[in-house]
Each structure stands twice: as structure tokens, then as C-alpha cells.
Specification:
Layout (H helix, E strand, L loop, with lengths): L4 E5 L7 E8 L4 H11 L3 E10 L2 E9 L9 H15 L1
Antiparallel strand pairs: 1-2, 2-4, 3-4
Helix pairs in contact: 1-2
Length: 88
């Protein structure tokens, strides 16, 4: 089973930060990712949720509390680490 991956897709949207999550699918996976995003102060504007075999490939369009995409590299890295921690 491959380790979970969280990627920030920098140029995928001008109106939201796009986060792709790939992990082994299991009960509660979306809840854990949603909790991690919420704990970072983010709002999910849209999501594309897919399962390919045993792998979940989920994409989240998120904005900050002001409705803007994240731009600060340190904030992006913190979000990535928070979501990864939720997947472990």
C-alpha cells in the first residue's frame, strides 16, 4: 500500500487553493481530511471525490476565512502537513 500523498496544485484555480489527497480508502477518510482542513481555518468550496480500486483520489477547493485562496508558502506547507497527519 503506497503512503498517503497531499499535493497543493498551485495553478489549478484562481479563486481557490486546490488540494489533492491520495490515500488508501477507508471508513472516515473524508471526515478526517475535512477536520484537518477545518482546523487550519479553511472552508471547502467544492470537492471531487473518487475511488480508484482501493485508492481514494480526492480534490478539495478551499479558501481562507476571508474567502480567498491561500498564497503564503508557510501556510500551504502547514495545511499539507496537517492533512498528512490526519491520514496517518
Amino acid at each position: 500500500m503506497p503512503p498517503p500523498r497531499v499535493m497543493i496544485l498551485a495553478d489549478a484555480s484562481r479563486t481557490a487553493t486546490v488540494i489533492e489527497v491520495r490515500a488508501h480508502d477507508r471508513p472516515g477518510l473524508l471526515w478526517r481530511v475535512g477536520q484537518a482542513l477545518g482546523s487550519c481555518g479553511l472552508q471547502v468550496r467544492a470537492a471531487q471525490v473518487d475511488t480508484l480500486g482501493a485508492e481514494a483520489v480526492d480534490v478539495f477547493y478551499v479558501v481562507d476565512e476571508e474567502g480567498l485562496p491561500l498564497e503564503d508558502p508557510a501556510a500551504l506547507a502547514a495545511v499539507r502537513e496537517e492533512v498528512l497527519a490526519a491520514l496517518r
